[in-house]
Amino acid sequence: MHKLYILLVFIVLTIISCTKKDTINHYLNNTVTQKELLDNGFYKYSMTYLEGESPEKDIHDYEPTNPSHYDTVRVEVFSNIKPKKINGIPKGPLPIFNDSCKIENRNKIITYFFRNNSLEFKSIMNPICSDTKTKDSFKTQIDIKKYYDSLKISYKKMPLERLRNHNDSIGLRVRFIINNFESYFYLTERKEMITYYKTKKRGNEDMLVWNFYKEDSSYEFIE
After folding, report:
1. In whole angstroms, what is the distance from residue 95 CA to residue 84 CA?
2. Buried b vs exposed e over 166-189: b needs ≥16 C-beta within 10 Å?
3. pLDDT per residue over 133-168, tens digit each?
4. Which DSSP string corresponds to 67-112?
5. Residue 48 phi/psi, 5° resolution?
6. Which of the two residues, 121 and 134, has the higher pLDDT score?
7. Which pLDDT belongs to residue 170?
8. pTM value?
């Protein structure tokens, strides 16, 4: 009986220690490390690919005039959504655009992208499930200003610029500098916010998020 009690206590302590609560306010735009995200219950995914340009050929289509040059790019993504499982084994990102109703507690979908260990951008979305009741969504620019005023966080409204591969109408987005980082807010019930941690933007962050969460995602679950 005494041994059984010790075993039960050990199991309970193990479960508690494995349960990590997210204590980060992701709307503040503070930079975070990969370790901080893991410590706050995020799940790590990764993909590696080659990026570069094919060599140019001369007008006679002989040998290339310039040698090929490709760089290895490692993208590590941290999501607060548990990975999908195949035969009980975690494999990759949950395809939220198909299975958003399976997201536990219907919480915000928060995703951080690191490129070669450098934080590039983050995305905050509401689950797409039709019966989801959105909370704390920014519906107007006044909502945004009131929120950051209440926290005494500096912000500055900026003119919009059109970014490539953005699916949303430009009229549904507003652009702010929040805590020294550029953020786009989507005034809809679904998508909320994208923050850039680099001065140079790719402009296709919407597509990168979509590719990460799609059914045949190339990302692998790490931990």
Report:
1. 8
2. beeeeeebbebebbebbbbbbbbe
3. 555 578 889 999 999 999 999 999 998 776 555 554
4. --EEEEEEEEEEESSPPEEETTEEEE---HHHHGGGSGGG--EEEE
5. -125, 135
6. 121
7. 53
8. 0.81
